[in-house]
Every structure is written in C-alpha cells, then in structure tokens.
Automatic annotation (TrEMBL):
It comes from Natronospira proteinivora. Its cofactor is [2Fe-2S] cluster. Keywords: 2Fe-2S, Electron transport, Iron, Iron-sulfur, Metal-binding, Transport. This is Bacterioferritin-associated ferredoxin. InterPro entries: BFD-associated_ferredoxin (IPR052371), BFD-like_2Fe2S-bd_dom (IPR007419), BFD-like_2Fe2S-bd_dom_sf (IPR041854).
Length: 67
C-alpha cells in the first residue's frame, strides 16, 4: 500500500528501511523522501516507525513526540 503517494513510497519500503537501520523520521526522510512534498503522509510514516520499532523491541528509540 502506498503511504507517501507523492513520492510513491509503500509501507513495505518503509518497513524495509527501518529494518535496515532507519530508526528515525529524519532518516526515513533522507532515505525515502517521505513527507517532502505535501506532508500528508507524516503521521502514517510516524505510525509505521513506532509500530516497527516496538515490534523489534526498540520502543525506547522513539523520539519523545512519538512515544
């Protein structure tokens, strides 16, 4: 499913990037360019990041605004 329609980024691409070490919104922006056009996907990207880090047992890595 597309999360960032503007840059054609899927949920799978986001999860793959997180698994490869992109453990912050900034790193996902740098790697995938999510949120850089209209920004409407930001909350969905944050939700995917929080969910995946929690599943990996790294919820403590979340930025304070996301916890």
């Amino acid at each position: 499913m597309y999360v960032c329609v503007c840059n054609a980024v899927t949920d799978r691409a986001i999860l793959k990037a997180i698994d490869a070490g992109a453990h912050s919104l900034d790193s996902l922006v740098d790697e995938l360019a999510v949120t850089t056009a209209c920004g409407s996907c930001e909350q969905a990207v944050r939700d995917h990041l929080a969910s995946r880090l929690a599943a990996l047992g790294h919820a403590d890595w979340l930025e304070p605004a996301m916890a």
